[in-house]
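Lay summary

Proteins are chains of building blocks that fold into shapes. Our project writes down both the chain and a compact code for its shape. Here are two examples, one after the other.
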Amino acid sequence: MLDQYKEQQPYLLALDSIIFGFDGESLKVLLVKRGVEEKTWSLMGGWLQPNEGLEQAAARILFDLTGLSNVYLEQLYAFGDPQRDPIVRTISVAYFSLVKIADYETKISEAFQARWFSIYDLPPLLFDHGDMVDLAIKRLRYKAAQHPLGFELLPEKFTIPQLKKLYDAVYNTEFDKRNFSRKILSTNLLIKLDEKQKGFSKRGAYFYQVDSSKYREINNSFLNFIPTSELAF
């Protein structure tokens, strides 16, 4: 039986992270500059260590590169085309993560030339990282329609118009204001605060925050969270 192991070829296993953030206007992905090619960018990633499981390694790499922990992190897909890395046979397990950009900006190491790019205006990407981003966007859209994932990208306090802008950005469309507001409020996930956002309109918009206990309770349930009939992919 040991001979069967000896006959196998060893391969490298990498983990790449598609890190999504929202700046209030557009959905963005975090990329780092590659030293090998001046105009090439890549996802943040690293290597699996001998004593790590995949989830542990993905969380460790994300923390090492951004300083962030306890953020939304989900395994996306395994990319294993024999030609994906021209240097050595490498299998990559991709994860996508949702972070608050304000949190990220205070924690990122200055050692990395990192930059946020709109998902609709990406530079040339290394290897098959473009395929990873495309698949991650599709997964995010699917899950955000059924689960309240969008809150992971927003600050602690937000307005309904801010929330709508996020979903407009995720789906590259514009939802009807009344339908969106009615659908969101019908989930009973939000707590209305006494505080209003000032400086954007005469009346101002009330701030809301997520009811954390209800969020944990229904996060794995299917809600039809947004009016999906309006989607325009």
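And here is the second example, written the same way.
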Amino acid sequence: MKKYALLAATAALTAVSTGASAAYVSNVQSLAGDFAISGFADGTPLTYDVALTGLSGSLSLAAGPSGSYTVSVGPGLAGGTGYAEATFFAGPGGTVSRTISSNVQVFSGDLNVSGLTPGVYPFMFGTGAILAPITFGFSGSYDGATTMGVLGLLNGLLGTSFSDPTGAGTVAITGTITDTSVTMSITETASGWDGAGALLLAADIGAFAVPYLTSNPTATQAQVTAAYFSNSNLSRDIIDGEFAMRNIAVTAVPEPASLALLGLGLAGLGVMRRRKQAA
């Protein structure tokens, strides 16, 4: 009996550890609307709000159990090329667009979520499918590393100079979903890096610095920051604009250690069931 139980456990481990179907894939078929991010320049940059309004399109969000993952971004179900674009009204300014034709790794490490049941959550905005507002709330933590390519993209967009790809932190999100909007209040902590809210603040200050330095070419960074917070005519503390995405997929693949633990758990359940039947 012990021999058969061991064989069953080994088989379960092997099957789960090599199964490509273990990936959790979120797909954006096509989604467009307006965005506004605020509250990052009020003295608490790690607490801020995000509002997506005027939404139209569809997407499906996949949530997996807590574990170690490798996360990548690539083309969605339609294959070929994915596309994303954002036009900024206030904040960094200008239009940023990106196309992607193959999977690009963006993160590797531990992801832990609580308050969100693993599964696939489909949404269709602007169709009347969401009849009443849906409230939600969940929290999570992360500890891992992004890629140098992502750091380069952030540095280019925000004018920052990040060189260390590692970081950890927590995030808590509460919000409401309607037929044409998603609003969220976000509270985070960060260790080893500044956090997403601090990046938003850096981007807003950087956008302000461009015209300010034209008139004050010898100003230091401290002087630029002081002028940003003291300028009463500045629409600071908001980054807003329009966005559009189509055929984008975010894939989270459990790393071998997480798969092995999952397989071991399944094998253990099988052994317990066998013992119960034998009794």
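What can we say about the second shape? The helical segments are 2-17, 148-158, 196-215, 221-230, 256-278.
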